[in-house]
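Case study B.
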Amino acid sequence: MSPIGKPIVDARGINKSFNTAHVLKNVDLKVNAGEVVCIVGPSGSGKSTFLRLINGLEDIDGGQIEVGETTLPGAPKELLSVRRNVGMVFQNFNLFPHLTVLENLTLSPRRTGRMNRSGAENKARELLKRVGISEQSSKYPSQLSGGQQQRVAIARALAMEPQILLFDEPTSALDPENVNEVLNVMKELASSGITMIVVTHEMGFAREVADRIVFMADGQLLVDASPSQFFEHVEDERLRSFLSKIL
Amino acid sequence: MLASKKALRQSLPWSYIISTVIALAVIATVLNFVNFKAIAALDFTVVYQYRYTFLWAIGTTLGITSTAIVIGLIVGIVLAVLIIQGPRPVRMVVTAYVEIWRNTPLIVQLFWVHFAMPVVTGVNTTALQSGLIAMTMQSAAYLTDIARTGILAVPKGQYEAAEALGLPTWSKWVDIILPQALRIVIPPLATIAVGFFKASAILSLLSVGELMTQTKNIATYTHKPIEVMTFVGLVYWALGYSFGSLAYKLEDILGSDQRARR
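Model:
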């Protein structure tokens, strides 16, 4: 845990372009340790791209992000240390289809030399129990429902014992009946004190769980407020029109 | 819709009759040309007589083919990774190698290795070594391309998940990308393997001692080329066919863990 007062994620003046499209324009965001921050906004607003910059899945074009003790953009070694400290949950789960659930969880702790086989397996079983799928550990991802797969993906991210968890629209690819089981796991995580940055369209979840909600549109960060302020007191025109469309 | 179905039903007997008549006519014509006396005079005991020679030769052919495929596959995977993410000069060299060895006949390569290489480099190789080198170099060229397409077929999300988990680069390739890529390329890999198995017959030009070399020797020695060649054709077919079926089985077994069973 970083000392109080120093944010665990500190993004300053972030710019990012894909060819001619300027998708992030001078974005600043500070996240303190233990905070849950939800990023919302219309599609194409740059929120997923911003999330992917935090663990170096995309390169930063301008500005820098301090993640824990490390600064991006950085050397490959620094990038690796950021990634081992930041877990990521993808929209499409991205589980390894040729490995069992248990192997999906143990691969990274073992390959990074963090744990031996039995240590990693114990940890994995504990995490699978925590996300409520301890019976499925020897199955392959394709044998699970979407909600179960996403819970495995969350457990896989936790297996590296990260300080920060990133969620990129974790429920957008799920059937409606599977959304809540994933959100419930995320709520439990949020209350456990881990730092979470969540790109989502689930406004109910954001309102209930987030410490802060951030609104992005056209590559800019327009609103950064507590849930109660966000839904009732912010008078940003684009936020109002966004909320009126989805609520 | 209804009308066309009716028309189909009516036309069915006619097409059936016509095709049967044509088939019978073809068979009759072919049989008319067959010299049954000559067939009856064929003497396949020669196969039994030289069974040990044949067995040894089959073993040699299988050995050469599997060596060429296994080494070629390993080299091919490494070269494919280099083509995909190596520095530009390396990519150019690898691409040049692949395009040269893939697009020239094996027989020419065989002569390069066996006759040109000693002149140019002073390194002499036996016929068997030359055959192995030429086959391996060509299979590596083919398999580089196949491995490359397999690797590119693995979804981008798999790379991202591996990177987001902080896996070391070697683990990303060995644990995540290559196992999935290899499953994807099992069918074309099997086709290439059977192709090389048959192409190994060209090595008989250097009298390497594999199946076709011995077949030609036995055919000449016994004056029974029809029997010997026909038998060997059957052997190539049986081995090639079994290998192909095996590959499909393998694909089935390896694919089953990824297929939904719900």
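The interface with chain B takes residues 55-57, 80-81, 83-84, 86-88, 90, 92, 94-99, 107-108, 111-112, 140, 142-143, 145, 156-157, 160 of chain A (CB under 8 Å). The remaining cases will be described in the next quarterly update.
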